[in-house]
Design goal:
The protein is an alpha+beta fold. It has 6 helices and 3 strands. GO terms for molecular function: DNA binding; DNA-binding transcription factor activity.
């Protein structure tokens, strides 16, 4: 992981918000676009930057590509901590937990 790519990825508020959503649950581009005032292609560009920096990974499941946080990344561990104390990040983390529980419930 190149440190410059990580800092570039974290420099964007929408990308930090995307990371907050992905803390607890895997989401598709359309899932994320529904939570932002942004088009799916714009979300895809943000996800591409996050993936290129090694902060998220993607996996095709049927017709969808799901994105998840790379939990083994020290940067993501630190980002998770920062989002916990950040007034903007805390509600996003809560919503991520709720989404995770809904996806696990049959």
């Amino acid at each position: 992981m190149e440190l410059d790519k990580v800092f570039e990825a974290l420099a964007s508020k929408p990308r930090r918000q995307i990371l907050a959503y992905l803390l607890e649950v895997e989401l598709s581009t359309s899932d994320l676009a529904a939570r932002f005032e942004m088009s799916a292609p714009a979300i895809s560009r943000h996800l591409s930057i996050l993936e290129n920096a090694g902060l998220v990974s993607s996996e095709r499941k049927g017709q969808f590509v799901l994105y998840k946080l790379n939990g083994d990344s020290l940067v993501n561990t630190l980002t998770g901590y920062a989002l916990e104390v950040c007034p903007v990040g805390r509600p996003l983390k809560r919503e991520s937990r709720v989404l995770s529980k809904k996806k696990k419930t049959p």
